[in-house]
Amino acid sequence: MRIAAYHRYGSPDVVGIEEREQPEPGPGEVRVRVHAASVGASDAAGRAGSPWFARLAFGLRRPRNTVLGSDFAGVVDAVGADVKRFAVGDRVFGATGADGGAHAEAVVVSEHGAIVPLPDGVTTSQAVAICDGAMTALPFLRDGGRLRPGMRVLVNGASGAVGSAAVQLAARLGAEVTGVCGPGHADLVSRLGARRVIDYTREDPMRPADATTYDLVFDAVGASSFRRARRVLADGGRYLTTVPSWAIMLQQLTSRLGRRRAVIMFTGLRSAEAKRPDLEELAALTASGRFAPLVDRILPLDAVAEAHAVVDTGHKAGTVVIAPVPELQEAS
């Protein structure tokens, strides 16, 4: 089978197409023919070996796993012994976590992993966009932010994979959402449910002209800091960020004594048991039309370096998807 592999850290062109023997599922495992996989910020960090914390996860001197990709969607084409949850022909989606391996024509996963049935009416590209964005946004808002109806929420990076999901989910949960993005995505963020949109090229959301404050500041791209966000946080407010740093990890501890909290979460490290109900809920919302995973573009596996380059720009709208099985490539 064809895979996208890399053997050293660097720019997008370190990732190339190779041939590898197709894996066979063992007991309790299923093999999924990968119709779609996401190329996200964690993949780009793992490929580059930067920032510093990426090498703690991917390998200090060189990559431990040569095939990136944690989000996958496709069809089960083989099952191992004693598999009960799935059968050949089932449409499924999920995440491999730190194991990666989804940037390939097939991936083997445990039937008890973070994998669930893919409902009719949800495309495989939408499914991996759920994994890439909403599976981070939902626990951040629900668990880290303790979001409740009527709260005022600022989403920084509102047009990205995580940010676009956060805007929709926060608005659906009854929050008053302000989205921060570039001028080219303002209309999109408004359509997603933001009551107000701030163009960061014209206005600093952390230095508002008025006295606006927020109950939650969700920095989905790590473009700000807790120190700066405190200016716009209401009493009892929380600053949430997806990007680790020494500062935020220390502030998460020290801010517990103050009136405003800093929160960092590692949602990808949650257990499969914790992830599966969220995958099912988000898929059901998508199937019913109440949530719309945002897909920036769909590229063939051969264009994986281009996919990484798009992610590196920091200006994508939603999730960049690759289709390892070209004949099954879908329209977004």
UniProtKB/TrEMBL annotation:
Protein name (database record): NAD(P)-dependent alcohol dehydrogenase
Superkingdom classification of source: Bacteria
Cited Pfam families: ADH_N, ADH_zinc_N_2
Matches recorded under PANTHER family: ALCOHOL DEHYDROGENASE RELATED, RETICULON-4-INTERACTING PROTEIN 1, MITOCHONDRIAL
Gene3D superfamilies: Medium-chain alcohol dehydrogenases, catalytic domain, NAD(P)-binding Rossmann-like Domain
Domain Enoyl reductase (ER) as annotated: residue spans: 10-322
